[in-house]
Fold this sequence. Notes:
This protein is an alpha/beta fold. The protein has 10 helices and 9 strands.
Amino acid sequence: MTQWTNDAAIRRWGAMPRAVLETMEHDGDFAKRHLVNPVLLRMLGDVRGRRVLDAGCGNGYLSRMLAERGAQVVGVEPGRSLFDFAVEKETAQPRGIRYVQADLCQLPDLGRFDAVVASMVLPAIPDWAPAMRACVAALSPGGLFVFTVNHPCFEQLWPSWREHGEYRTRRYLAEYEIEGPHGVDFHRPLSAYLNELTSLGCRLREIAEPGLDPTVADAGPEGIDAYVHLPNFLVVAAERA
């Protein structure tokens, strides 16, 4: 059982350096650009005129992409440096995005949304289930909830592939911490996310395990060809009953 609290995790992620945030300003990092974003945006479909909550919006790149596609976006982010960066970009180039600094587990009443997106957020929250409940509660009936996580079966794919030329793991069922350069993620079995989702009365619409285009891998960093063969991300779309 982790000793991390939500507040401690928020402080850690919220200290991310500005230089790092700037490298991810437009569409995230390499993996988000080529694997996560295309699937997530396809699942959301036409967002013109729809209210969309970007839950755990980070530096706001996805909020900006959605607003440019015509969505009415509210972005929620608890981490200080991430929130400040998102607000700064909205101030410099207004897109009609409202940013709120709040813990997803203590989400204020922001009205109801046609869609809620939580991209690469749930694995970063120690006490994550209340955050998923808050996301679903924010949806209008029939609204769409799309979330992305590191694929629980292949979280250490890239470093394992670079070291061994294949994927290796020794544990899966227990929760454990995955230390990163700017924060900590938490491994949980796939069943934890899906069982919580169904307990909230959501109807599963689609699960995607995106693979990388081999031609893109050829131009990417060392070892990225692992993403051609195994999925490092899981994208889930569900409807609120």
